[in-house]
């Protein structure tokens, strides 16, 4: 059950929150209670889901709570699940009844009040969960629910009289005083007899709605302001109506309350519920409420919104008109979602970008004269270009400068110093707009498809304005720094081996070796790849024992083992690099890359082995060696997550490269595709839990559930060297797979925002995951213990720009580009780790870190001729041909190849002159001569070309009444000894025996057959066979290309 | 073949069409690469290239509405158990410049976007193509093998070969370790079907997306094994370009592509596809539904039933449906043949008996019908006219069947009786569904039978005896259910 919910959460797209409604864009949310703690706004909503069980499927369904927070009401952080129904001791774990909650602070502790269905009995109870520290986001529920409350929608009023009152809904709106512990009702509460249906029962507290106009009420939210107590509540004021938000006032917290009016009218679209809270933040009051923006057809899946609220001088509340614009300030250099308008007119409307996934947001549709305005925008840089993103077909947006469109933008200064952007359409054609951006550099837009499916990789350096040539040159320089220059860490040994050394530690690690393999295959450097692989196989890969097939994680530079166990990330890169090598270079050479990869894949599966322990904990030899049976595997079998080392009970966030598993699933051919895809999914889920939602930082090591290890033995709770790789790894996962688009985009901006907040030129290389300075600084190699602005982290954080839309990313990219890799003031220089990460980042940001796809091998289609003569095959196909380099003749369709076109284009056969380098003799390996492969295999133009083919047929005697049976893609024309024999005109496909020639006579001696095939698009080929008058193959002749 | 450059213009055009006036016959059936029709809660759905799809309440009138995420080219949909499996490709086909294709599958409990149950599961990849290999993994076609419940996917385009892989019908995922197999060359928009011991691979040959110049045509080969080889009627493997034509062009429509088969009843099948250009609908790409006939084990694309004046001839006896009125002799002297005739007298045509010559004696109210010798007399001449405002069914609108030259209309009566009413009123019992069966004959079915509830889909015009027609349950195995139409003109 839990699993399916997780999967569900993962699939939801997350549009990074901007200051607009709804404020929560990565999930359904409802019933928001907003509270201010420590100067930060927290929102505690219900979490609507589509119920995984019947019969609730068509009803409200809520299994857990998330907490959200924001410092600026613009950027909202999802702190993840703070409480689940499985965790509540008194609750029914499958009731899906975690309805509207509240949270208050008392004496430094946070008390979370929530309704839930009890394990036994009927109806609802209200429970409390307590949290000591909001940054951990874990609330521990009490064993029992609050005695005396039967109902939902708790709200706690911390009154100025020093008392705490709890309001709830259940048989009307009720209120009772709480004890100081906030866990029980006070003993001095009045007791009333209330009617529930036909039953009369005693209830502690008082009904606070007795004096209010009748109609269904629920969801009370009470607060105190200027000595007055306010009771606000959703209310069905009309028969068969839906809920509006109303309020009443009193001088006493427990009433009686006097009805005052409406805060918000019923929703116009008939969304039945509304549920709310009021909160003051920095001198402004806000109303938080909900509406079903992301689920227009099902109003039980709602979305939290917020708008500003104002009091009249007499303390009464002004009605709030719900807006799309909502609250907070929007930075004009980001994506300004005009569809979340402040005002709209001239016939402009909004529509979902994708009706199958409303979380992908809206677009605004502007007819001629249509306009839309978006207020409270900050413009920090007056020099900007206005960019417009327009939704295109199939989710492919187009970004244009506004001057290329019929749109006009006015930036109007507001009294508060911010701007209102007014976008209007002056053209006749309607225009659709997803967002606009006012920036000097072109806004960054993360990819919507992974390279694994699109074959496309962004070159962010080029997007940032560096020229393609400069980027290529720089990339080569960075490569040379690692592999060639004086500070290189790659060393060749003998004539066929080489290694990469962690110079500062003076060893060779599987990490560096496998990185080297990856870089070599990415750069198409088979020489380097093969050298590194031979060294790895010879010195590192273990031949037998419990670690058979794994690699010793550290060796001396002469190959002597430093360690006898593996470190899991090495295997990860070895396997992936070998698969890429297999795809790129094939497996017909000395090294069968695929077989090597498959061997490792087999060895890393769970395997039971015996471990002999000869020494006790005290280090003294045991009298009798102890034999322990253990099952080790690279991937922890219980969680599907990669181990720190095989068999370990913890993992390393920087070892998580989900896209690698997807590469294995596609190409390893090890029969485990589904398993690897599942591992990828689990790895992504794990990353969500391992990364601090506020800082984007993760620990070096952690438990499989994402929690910190807090171990006395392993130092791994902070963000240090290992962790640097995580931003780059997630960028890789995004760039290759794009399977976790929403979360990863949000992650990228979060970590860049954090580092930026530390100073783009100053951020250091070690932090606690909450962003504070760690107690212990770890040193690199034997260099002094010091916090540095390490180029390794500069590199990986810049690589995270692949995930980002904000303009800060340009500063990260520029910094990496400009930062020289040179020794620190204290002489610190890490050619290895910093050097490799820097190279990886340059590969990423230049679009050169890719999924290496299987390359087609020419030899599968055409091979150089062998022997003097060939014969037709048993079906009469002529397979030996001289093929001429394609002649360029552009055509973008095949339908133009009518007879006259062909006769004009090649009126007569061209003749082959011996030793003409343009001609190549091949034996086709298939019945059809694949001209397209001839073109691609010899790196020539494949489309819009004419192919010429010729061959010579030798007969021992005249063979009369022979016909040529020909098929070609596309049109073709054929000659025998210069005489036209057949024409295949029009829009042709490869069809065997499509056209046959008139009867011809193959003369005794030599007969020259020549053909021309023309194509526009498409995979050009032809098949040509000889048949007799009865249609039977003619095979009694010899074919040669030597004449 | 021109797919790369032109598919966008096709789509762009079709989005403009939505804003224009509805086509009177069948709504707004604008689509490219329609998925096999799927029924959900009594409605028909199909999905097309680009994202949207079409829905029809009755199978005749189509409009936009269905939603499918992922965009891309040429999806397919198949009901498995109580769920729908949708296969699609978000990429490939030269989109974004390359042929990196992926076929993905996802489930939905319903195809109705308004239903609270409407939710697609996460899409999973079941096939892919690297940019340069002989395949472009788009254009999915699904087959649930009725012989053993296994699930198969065919995919590919002109860029190389059509391939097939096996999927797990429970998960929609690729069967572990299953390797793709090449089954055809130079096709697109393939589909697999099964019938009577043969698997059929339907492919689309030719060029799409070039309007009235598109040469798209649907061809097929068959195999005893689902994995092929698929051989055409000439013994040619589809991997060598073989393929027997199923549908190319019809008069005023060209470019049949993206086959889907729907079995309505035993012996009642239709094929769905698109025309690249319909000459009667501005040359747009439209959904077409036609009877699917079978001839000696090969599928043959039928044509829509056309309006006209017909004799309705029973398959049972060859008699003709007629009003139960007096046979009135024609007052025309018997002419001698070759032996005593005046050899010099020129021959001249014999005038046909006219309605006015005979109708005077007919009763004014209802007149029953029977079946008798076919002699093209006025009481045997039936005018068959579409009644588009009455809706329709897969392949055609409902028809009225009236005596030629009059308003007297064939009608279903209470107790499964047949009669004619003096004047066509548009009532449901006077509307007829005419469907061509797989053997080429027709079944004729009233929309409604008085005394019963709702729309009739069971009772057909039926020869109870050689001369006695009634309404009885359709039975493909009996010639009593079958009729032919003889056009009343030379």
Structure description:
The complex is a heterodimer of chains A (1043) and B (490). Chain A is α+β, with helices and mostly antiparallel strands. Among the domains of chain A are: 292 residues, 5 Propeller (Tachylectin-2, Chain A), CATH 2.115.10.20; 114 residues, Sandwich (Jelly Rolls); 183 residues, Jelly Rolls, CATH 2.60.120. Chain A is built from 17 helices and 55 strands. In chain A, the strands form 15 sheets. In chain A, strands 43, 44, 45, 46, 47, 49, 50, 53 and 55 form a nine-stranded antiparallel sheet that branches. In chain A, strands 22, 23, 26, 29 and 30 form a five-stranded mixed sheet that branches. In chain A, α4 packs antiparallel against α15, α11 runs antiparallel to α12 and α11 packs parallel to α13. Chain A is globular, with a radius of gyration of 36 Å. Chain A starts with a helix and ends with a strand. The N terminus of chain A is likely disordered. Chain B is mainly β and 490 residues long. Chain B has two domains: 299 residues, Tachylectin-2, Chain A; 180 residues, Trefoil (Acidic Fibroblast Growth Factor, subunit A) (Trefoil), CATH 2.80.10. Chain B is built from two helices and 34 strands. In chain B, the strands form nine sheets. Chain B has a six-stranded antiparallel sheet, with no helix packed on it. Chain B is elongated. At the A-B interface, α1, α2 and α10 of A face α1 and β8 of B.
